[in-house]
TrEMBL record:
One Gene Ontology MF term: Hsp90 protein binding
Domain of life: Eukaryota
Gene expressing this chain: NCAS0G00750
Annotated InterPro entries: ARM-like, ARM-type_fold, UCS_central_dom
Listed name of the protein: UNC-45/Cro1/She4 central domain-containing protein
SUPFAM superfamilies referenced in this protein's UniProt entry, alphabetically: ARM repeat
Length: 768
């Protein structure tokens, strides 16, 4: 059969014609496709066939209907055709049907092929089941067959990966029916195992549980704990000497530790067996991981945390060399998983910080380009790096900030002995952590590489990257290199991703951002993005009701006073540079109603650090007075007048640093905007309070300088005629202020420019 029709149609697609292709041409091409056998499809070219099928499915309702008719004419042949193509065509095959009942002939064909196991495309068949379950609503009796058929083939790779998805969908839609069917199947397999009949049913149960435990934890745990399985497992492991079964069982025990009840059960009933198998070369990796995940180190008789760590690091490096670094076998993967847990222990962190070969190897694996490692392994390595790079006594990282699995395990260990320290407890120091970070993370430019992969990795890995950045930003000496490697961009892109908005790691990202923005020059940071991009994220750390609906962290009690303080410091730094970008920051903060409302509230915050930082921010905003002046110095506006009066009273704060900030606000505005300074000439309360502080705290150089600039700016605006100047007698007849200025003339620590200005100021007083 000629493939000219298909070839011509594909050429038309490539021309991108404005006139749409007529349905008849699609139908003619579809006829040609469905008249061919598999060999004919290969001759035409699967890519061209997929293109025609996709266009026919999408372009016209009539060609879509015709495609469906061709499929129905011969379901087995149609399925042969589709499964010879890529997995992307599943949605075309399933989507061509209108209702669940329409798909029943296809479902029956899928059932037969899955059941008999002769079809060589099981992944395609299972993908059709997944697509059907997602798209249509079935009665239980129409699809219950899939439970048994998938269970019986769970040892096959495709069934392991897709079977879990299918069972999750079935449990969501048919919870009771699925539970009954699944438990009946397991019970039948147990009976076969007890009668010693069937095709190794016990191994099959182990494989089923191992794959399903993460999603069907409760069902698997109920069956594991409530049946004769434990006895059967032990008998087969101890008496049959089947290495492969023992490895599978150890993998199951490892996975089952996700459930606390099962974890306790394993610790009570399997520790002796696990310790014995730890001495056997073929089982030591698997046994070590299970022992670690039971988190029952005090119950171990002849094994220490150090022994377990050494076993895993040595076996990891040995197996990697056996594989010539090209791939990671099961033992390598298990070693990474075990160390991800074990590095929660201080002893293991300290050991690995000085294990150069291991650290270099895992960094290289993360950056490997030719044969990239599986994302689950990347996640494990990132967890290890996150644990090792955590500074001691960083309470932020304790408990809630760990990934969920690690959190559960850590919480479990703390419940056992909440106040009891290990007998051989060790003390970490910050210098070791900094040395490790700089040698293995910063100097290898790992963060630069990970920044380019942020969109590609799993959500869990993305969170661990943020956690590592957070760890780095806990020490000032790491900030510069972190910024150079693009960590600000990494954090901003993570925060901007809506998928990550509810993650607890978000708080770590925000804290990382505040540190980097506070301790870096904004001019060097913002190239890809405007510094305005960071402002909404900083405001997430400023807790006020006005933004609660938009703030992903508003319902949490995780935001601390320190977080708010550091966010204000970061905002201040963004507004500190002498360029238009800083002016833009000022405008954004002042003109956004919610943002400015928060600042107004924080001026009177109970915490002195937060209040001081808020006042310092306002003082910096005064460097660009056109935006902010109306918020404080528009005396015809009640809210503005209120803000002004509050600032006047805050001049007398007990916190000197906060006083300096308030004084800077008045100094900046009076020296930069003469029109506003003119209105301050008759503000008696302001002048009286400023005079008192100027006189009483004259030894504080920073405060003295700010108040001097304020008074000098006012005196500059006094009228030259005496009768006009008398209107401002709070200045011109201010004996205390005159005496203070005169005393400055006698000091030897006054800047020359101030000394030169004082005589002109004194000449405008009308008091002796």
């Amino acid at each position: 059969m000629s493939d000219k029709v298909i070839a011509d149609l594909c050429l038309e697609f490539e021309k991108k014609l404005r006139v749409p292709v007529e349905p008849e041409k699609y139908n003619e091409a579809l006829d040609e496709i469905f008249m061919n056998d598999i060999e004919g499809i290969e001759n035409i070219g699967s890519k061209q066939v997929e293109t025609v099928l996709s266009r026919a499915y999408q372009a016209h309702s009539s060609s879509r209907v015709y495609l469906h008719e061709l499929i129905l004419k011969d379901i087995p042949k149609s399925l042969n055709l589709f499964e010879s193509l890529s997995i992307q065509t599943v949605h075309i095959l399933i989507g061509s049907f209108e209702t669940a009942n329409d798909t029943i002939p296809l479902i029956k064909e899928l059932k037969d092929r899955i059941h008999y196991g002769e079809d060589t495309h099981p992944k395609y068949l299972l993908s059709c089941i997944v697509q059907s379950l997602n798209k249509y609503s079935y009665a239980w009796d129409q699809i219950e067959f899939i439970v048994r058929d998938v269970c019986l083939r769970m040892g096959e790779p495709d069934f392991k990966s897709i079977g879990l998805i299918i069972f999750t969908l079935l449990q969501e839609s048919f919870e009771e029916q699925f539970y009954k069917k699944f438990t009946n199947i397991i019970d039948s397999l147990i009976l076969e195992a007890e009668a010693d009949v069937g095709n190794d049913p016990l191994s099959l149960i182990v494989e089923i549980f191992t794959e399903l435990y993460p999603a069907l934890t409760n069902i698997c745990s109920e069956l594991f704990l409530g049946s004769e399985l434990d006895k059967l497992f032990k008998e087969k492991a101890m008496h049959n000497n089947e290495d492969e079964f023992i490895k599978k069982l150890l993998k199951l025990l490892s996975v089952a530790c996700i459930d606390e009840n099962v974890r306790n059960f394993i610790a009570e009933n399997y520790l002796d067996m696990l310790e014995r198998s730890l001495k056997l070369e073929q089982f030591k990796t698997y046994s070590a991981v299970v022992l670690i995940k039971t988190w029952s180190f005090t119950k171990l008789k002849g094994v220490t945390i150090g022994d377990l760590g050494t076993t895993l690091t040595d076996n990891f490096l040995m197996n990697l060399k056996i594989d010539d670094g090209q791939s990671l076998n099961d033992e390598c993967v298990m070693c990474i998983e075990g160390l991800a847990y074990l590095t929660l222990k201080k002893q293991m962190k300290m050991t690995l910080r000085y294990h150069e070969e291991f650290s270099t190897t895992i960094i290289n694996l993360l950056k490997k380009q030719d044969t990239p490692v599986d994302d689950s392994v990347k996640y494990g390595i990132l967890v290890i790096l996150g644990n090792i790079s955590t500074y001691p006594m960083d309470v932020t990282m304790d408990g809630a900030m760990d990934p969920q699995a690690l959190q559960d395990l850590k919480t479990y260990s703390e419940l056992k002995s909440p106040k009891k320290r290990d007998a051989n407890d060790v003390i970490e120091n910050n210098e070791d952590v900094t040395r490790y970070i700089q040698k293995y993370i910063l100097k290898t430019e790992l963060l630069s590489y990970l920044r380019t992969k942020l969109a590609e990795v799993s959500p869990g890995s993305r969170q661990q990257i943020i956690r590592i950045i957070y760890n780095l930003t806990r020490a000032r000496e790491n900030i510069s290199a972190s910024v150079e490697q693009g960590c600000v961009v990494t954090v901003i892109e993570y925060l901007a991703n809506k998928k990550d908005k509810k993650e607890p790691t978000r708080l770590l990202a925000l804290r990382s951002l505040t540190k980097m923005l506070t301790l870096s020059d904004p001019k060097l940071i913002f190239n890809k993005y405007s510094r305005l991009t960071a402002i909404p994220f900083l405001y997430e750390l400023l807790q006020t009701p006005s933004l609660s609906a938009e703030n992903p962290l508003s319902t949490d009690e995780l935001i601390t006073t320190q977080d708010s303080y550091e966010a204000l410091c970061a905002l201040t730094n963004l507004a500190s540079t002498e360029d238009s970008n800083a002016d833009d920051v000022c405008k954004q903060v002042v003109t956004d109603v919610n943002y400015w409302s928060i600042i107004e509230n924080l001026i009177l915050d109970d915490n002195i650090l937060v209040q001081r930082a808020t006042l310092e921010l306002i003082a910096n905003l005064m460097c660009y007075p056109l935006s902010i002046a109306a918020k404080i110095f528009n005396f015809e506006n009640p809210q503005s007048l209120r803000n002004f009066n509050i600032l006047v009273k805050l001049l007398e704060l007990n916190d000197v640093a906060a006083q300096r900030a308030v004084a800077a606000i008045f100094a900046n505005i009076s020296s930069s905007v003469p029109l506003i300074a003119q209105t301050l000439l008759d503000k008696k309360e302001l002048i009286e309070k400023a005079t008192g502080i100027f006189a009483e705290q004259i030894d504080d150089e920073a405060l003295r300088q700010r108040l001097f600039v304020f008074f000098f700016s006012l005196f500059e605006l006094l009228p030259s005629k005496e009768e006009d100047s008398r209107k401002f007698d709070s200045l011109t007849r201010n004996t205390n202020l005159k005496m203070t200025l005169e005393s400055l003339m006698k000091r030897d620590d006054i800047e020359p420019e101030y000394l030169e200005a004082i005589p002109a100021m004194l000449s405008k007083f009308y008091v002796k």
